[in-house]
Amino acid sequence: MINTTLANWDGNIVKLTWKPSKVLPDEKLITSVHGYCFNEGNILLVKIKDRGFNTPGGHIEKGESAEDTFHREALEEGYVNGKVTLLGYIEVNHEDNPLYEPDGKYPLVGYQVYYRMDIHEILPFQGDYEATARIWVEPDLFTNVIDDHILHRLILEEALKASNH
């Protein structure tokens, strides 16, 4: 199965490669942390202002670990807590991106880390942060709701295999 694709991010062509792993990449090169949150077999998706539905996630704040970041993002965007399992990461490679800025905020090769969360607490949705709504989606319908690219399917497969049930 294909685990590498090209993406156009605001005119920047980047190579994205999914790498299942139980070990984090170099934490200094992690640009964001995301996850697939499960409750009763369904996946949590959050509607982010101006971006549509996605899995909870975001940038690491000073002093946070990748796992701490995911817990915070799941709580802020989805209002959920739970046990997490590292699934792996997407390598984001700008080596062939003619618009890459070496002094910009992203490394030439960086990483987006992905976790699975088995939810044990669901809090009332408040919409206090970037998320304006949350929904629960059956895994078979996941790619009907989220902006699909091949890597989302691969990460979902990894998340389903990592079930703690």
From TrEMBL:
<dbReference type="InterPro" id="IPR000086">
    <property type="entry name" value="NUDIX_hydrolase_dom"/>
</dbReference>
<dbReference type="Pfam" id="PF00293">
    <property type="entry name" value="NUDIX"/>
</dbReference>
<feature type="domain" description="Nudix hydrolase">
    <location>
        <begin position="28"/>
        <end position="159"/>
    </location>
</feature>
<protein>
    <submittedName>
        <fullName>NUDIX domain-containing protein</fullName>
    </submittedName>
</protein>
<dbReference type="InterPro" id="IPR015797">
    <property type="entry name" value="NUDIX_hydrolase-like_dom_sf"/>
</dbReference>
